[in-house]
Amino acid sequence: MVPGRKFPTQFGHSKSGRILLFVATVGFVLTMGISFFNLRKYEELGRIELSETTWVVAQTRYEFLRFTGTLDLYVQPTSTLSKDQLLHRFDILWSRLPLFLEGPESARYAAVPGLQDSVRRLAATLEAMEPRLRDLRKGDLEMYETLRREFDVQAGPLGEVIVSALVQDEGKTIFFNASLERTYLALMIAFAGVLASGTGLIILLLRETAAARRAETSAQAATLQLRVALDSIADGFVLYDQRGRLVLYNDKFVDFCRPAASMIKPGTGFEDILRAQVDAGDIQAALLDPEHWIEQRRSRHYNPVGSFEQSMTCGQWLQISERRTPDGGIVGILTDITELKRRETALREAKEIADQANRAKTAFLATMSHELRTPLNAIIGFSDMMAEEVLGPMGNPRYAEYVEDIRTSGRHLLAIINDILDMAKIESGRLEMSEELFGLEDLIKDTFRLLRAGAAGIELSLEPCAESLLVLCDQQLIRQILLNLYSNALKFTPPGGMVRTRIDRGTDGSVQVRISDTGIGIAREYLAQVMQPFVQLESHLHRRHDGTGLGLPLVKAMVELHGGRFELDSEPGTGTTAT
Predict the structure, then answer these.
(1) pTM of the model
(2) What confidence category does residue 196 fall into, taking pLDDT thresholds of 50, 70 and 90?
(3) What pLDDT is recorded for position 125?
(4) DSSP string covering 441-501, please?
(5) pLDDT-derived band of residue 11, with 50, 70 and 90 as boundaries?
(6) pLDDT by residue (tens digit) across 512-528?
(7) Would you say residue 302 has pLDDT above 70?
(8) Which of 27, 45, 75, 207: CA 20 to 30 A from 4?
């Protein structure tokens, strides 16, 4: 008997006992080895199975980008996208959110800190956004910025949680700890089974082998799903590890890096891909000083802050957005914005053409006004001399009537030309002010005296301010403002009506002048039109009142030139108030 041996002599020395012991020992060793091998395979399969679980997470992240991209393009005034396309992207994004809160996978998502709370907040935001999104019009940048800001406040934190769940190794422990625990338990059962019976070990081996085969098949299917999902998106996707080596990418990323396509594979360094593009002359900004540009791009890549645009020599424009992952890697999204840049260029060119046309129009008005004023001054001057018979009597009385018609028409035409010239000066920025201190109430009373002759049957009244007011303004321009407003009020107020003026001082030190008449009034839907130059509401074939449609636009421009604000309120049959 060998010292220390626990087995009976007849068992250890008998041929059948040795065979049974050998079989049990070999079976135990083989089973333990295979079980540990399966354990290792479960750990490896866990990584792949994570892809199946997080496929919904990755797709949701992609839907964020597609919705915001569609919203950015839709709001452009020249966008060809329809409201149905925008709402379709919105509905798809919304439909992703319940997958995190309900169904068989919700328990796994609940293990990711903050994920489901972020999803609920985003869902509430989307519910509040939907009515306004349906009312959003193209070119409504104010509403767009409000919606985009509300969405980013909730989608930003959720996006960070989603990217974290997609790339960090800690997710393996969260999602697959239960599977590994079952494997460890199976290993302990196998160990106990070997001690009891070699047959149990063989059965366990067969069961574990079959489970591993099923898990491998499931992992392969999940990998294929993730790959198809990444390749189906319109944007380029790329993931680098903390050492700048390529980990994951899609076909679109390869398309965007055409000169370096042959070297794009897992493990390739970021700088190697970048240098291949620069050496091929693919990047416009790198043509003048390649090394300096590479250093700048390298610094931006390893210290990512927001997104930036990159021009390619083929005419393509890319928007590149890079973010650092919690484990130190870099995830990037590359979006083709060539069409958007073309539209921006077209808008700038259209604006420049419009500005040139406006400048030409202003120059034409200024030139023609000066050209017309010269002969008109002569006409008016000579008609004045003839009307006053400076050189002696003219003879026939009808000549005097004709002279008066010439003088009146000439002055009217000169007033029109002066208005046109003032508008041209304002639009070209050449109207200069000469500010001085003067009493506003005195200026209004002087204006009343000038207008008494044309105010037959109409009451002109002034309700002065409780305190004496001195204002620092261009007195001539203020006089012209008052004359235009009072002339309009008298023109459109029938005999027996009133034109009242009230002066108030605001709490901020401003002065408010309110001129109200009891005239024919203007419908509210036309108030914006009468503020436009040369606009008159009555047809030129049936006009009952003279004018060029420049009075109110000139008043508005001169008030704003002083830093003030001009408002008009009116009601047909009741009257108009200019403030």
Answers:
(1) 0.36
(2) low
(3) 86
(4) HHHHHHHHHHHGGG-TT-EEEEE--SS--EEEEEHHHHHHHHHHHHHHHHHTS-TT-EEEE
(5) very low
(6) 899 999 888 888 888 87
(7) yes
(8) 27
What does DSSP assign to residue 139?
T
Q: Which residues contact 183 (CB under 8 A, 6 or more apart)?
A: 38, 39, 42
Q: What is the pLDDT of residue 38?
A: 60
Q: What type of residue is 266?
A: P
CA-CA-CA-CA torsion sign (226, 229, 232, 236): negative
344-428: CATH architecture? Orthogonal Bundle (1.10)
Note the pLDDT tens digit of each residue in 13-37.
Answer: 456 555 655 666 676 667 666 666 6
Residue 536 and residue 549 in contact, taking contact as beta carbons nearer than 8 Å: yes
What's the burial of 315, exposed, middle or buried (CB within 10 Å: 0-12/13-18/19+)? exposed
Domain ranges (residues) in the chain:
9-232, 236-336, 344-428, 435-578
Answer positive or negative: Cα dihedral of 480, 482, 488, 494: negative
Are 408 and 471 contacting, i.e. CB atoms less than 8 angstroms apart?
Answer: no
Is the pLDDT assigned to residue 362 strictly greater than 70? no
pLDDT at 308 over 60: yes
Cα maximum dimension of the chain? 166
Structure tokens at 44: 């490896």
N-terminal to C-terminal alpha carbon distance within the chain: 121
Asked whether 202 and 300 are in contact (CB, 8 A), the reply is no
Amino acid at residue number 115: L
Identify the CATH number of the domain defined by range 236-336.
Answer: 3.30.450
